[in-house]
Write the structure tokens for this entry.
Amino acid sequence: MTSHEIPRVYVAGHRGLVGSALVRRLEREPVEIITKPRHELDLENPIAVLRFFARERPDQVYLAAAKVGGILANSMYPADFIRNNLLVTLNVLEASRDSGVKKLLFLGSSCIYPKLAAQPITEDALLTGPLEPTNEPYAVAKIAGIQMCRSYNRQFGTNFVSVMPTNLYGTGDNFDLNTSHVLPALIRKFHEAKLSGASAVTIWGTGAPRREFLHVDDLADACVHVMAHHDGDELVNIGCGEDITIADVARMVGEVVGFSGTLEFDTSKPDGTPRKLLDVSRLSKLGWRAQIPLRDGIEQTYRWFKESVSHTK
Ligand code: GFB
């Protein structure tokens, strides 16, 4: 790229929750967005990825391709979670180095931090204690990604930056009750209970765990901001700075959907981490803060669910 050319930006995982939000956000920037559907580029295939990067020569990369899922999916498919995430990260980072990518943003997750980390969780809590068992394979793959970014920076002089998003939700989410995260699951459960006239909705676990929820459009905006304003090895947490119990967020979803029945708690299902509120001071110092209040975000996501998903099953 010369100074008068616009940057070529590759978004890996552009059909996913995060990748699709990044594409929507980057469409407002003076950049050329590069995407490639899965059937044309298998990110698990190292040769295909090297060739793709050699041909396309992106200047910047957002690595949003990942195998993700909620607490149940993580425990049902642990091999898929560690294998896919390690392979994709390995291939994309190596091809980025090989083809001379100027800057890469690697997306991790708040589950990389120890299960019982002090709250709110600062970036330096990484590798200071045991992980939450329900998502350990996924977390280990993401920690490997962070260490790869740092090692490549040190050995090859690359500029690979790692961000750690909190629990995400929003447009393009997965609403499959067996594999989804909690917020889309609640939206679907309350919607279907309202339609069928059910008197109660079942929530997994005790309802006591706390989670911090960030709308994916906020996350995409934060990623573009970090790409522009932060370099090097220091992780950057991305969150809104506030958390809520699962029981309270369930009540909020019930109100948004218009369900007037009761909540039941299925304590045979796991709670997972008791709390994982991110410390977002570093991100604040970079000049970014979340804009979408949780209730507004849930209302928007429920509208999107009704328009795009509810009739498809
Ligand atoms: O969102 P979630 O699946 O993942 O669950 P984690 C959050 C909390 O909501 C847990 C409870 O305490 C669940 O037991 N929950 C209540 C439900 N009802 C439901 C429901 O119907 N569906 C789901 N899915 N949960 C994930 C990790 O952990 O967080 C991933 O597994 C990733 O690796 C992601 O890091 C951000 O927040 O517990």
DSSP finds ten helices and twelve strands in the chain.
